[in-house]
Amino acid sequence: MGEDAADRIFEVLSHETRRRIIKALAEEGPLSFSEIMDKAGVEDTGTLTFHLRKMSEFLKKNEKGEYELTELGWAAYEVLKSALGRAAREAPARLREEEE
Q: By the 8 A CB rule, do 21 and 27 touch?
């Protein structure tokens, strides 16, 4: 992955709503606009449209009109998964250190 792709991934993952969208599509498969709204906890269609536009390189629509991750979207999910896994592994160690 080049620096330019990494920059775009970090930018898209910088917002919680976009992280939720990436995670939902990766873990649940193709989703409709309304399903993404529900899974990402977005109540306003304009807000979701804004985020989907920001994520245009990360998403594509399939023949049913559902959203799916592109190759770059899957790369973003791997980065997100790695970051979340690391945070989960480090949290218990930090708690133990604080208790001592």
A: no
Q: What is the mean pLDDT of each run of 10 residues along the chain (100 residues)?
A: 83 95 96 97 96 96 97 95 67 52
**pTM assigned to the model:** 0.82
Task: Name the burial class of residue 26, with classes exposed (0-12), middle (13-18) and buried (19+) by CB atoms within 10 angstroms of its CB.
Answer: middle
Q: Which of 79, 71, 24, 85 is nearest to 51 (CA)?
A: 24
Half-sphere exposure of 15 (CA within 13 A, CB side): 15
CB-based contact 32:65 (threshold 8 Å) = yes
> Which single residue is written with the structure tokens 């606009």?
33
